[in-house]
Design a protein that fits this description.
It comes from Klebsiella pneumoniae. This is Potassium efflux system KefA protein / Small-conductance mechanosensitive channel. By secondary structure, the chain is mainly alpha-helical. The chain has 4 helices and no strands. It has one domain.
């Protein structure tokens, strides 16, 4: 689980970097249009800006989902650790209880009366 959490954190970091690069959409589109100036008109430019905005929104949603998945993985890891702790504690208690199982009859009032008669 520890490796999965580390992988999720790394993936979330990479998604954040991609999303942050898209916040400067004009510069990003200019870089895409570089070398294709004869093919690019206002319509294409506007369409690219829309695509970039949509991609940024999708990356933002993906980032939120990764955050939720990361939180659930951390909670799962904590729950597993707690379960292992409770399990070993119960095992220890059961081992002690089994060791101290009664091998004789209890010493109650009847036992005391019977021992006086002997």
């Amino acid at each position: 689980m520890t490796n999965r959490i580390a992988d999720l954190r790394l993936e979330q970091f990479e998604v954040n970097q991609q999303r942050d690069a898209l916040f400067q959409s004009d510069a990003f589109v200019a870089k895409l249009e570089e070398g294709h100036s004869s093919e690019v008109n206002d319509e294409v430019h506007a369409a690219l800006l829309e695509v970039i905005d949509m991609r940024r929104e999708l990356l933002d949603q993906f980032n939120k989902q990764l955050g939720n998945q990361l939180m659930m993985a951390i909670n799962l890891q904590i729950n597993q650790q707690q379960l292992m702790s409770v399990s070993s504690s119960l095992k220890e208690i059961l081992t002690q209880q089994i060791f101290w199982v009664n091998s004789n009859k209890p010493m109650d009032w009847e036992w005391i009366k019977a021992s006086r008669r002997r």
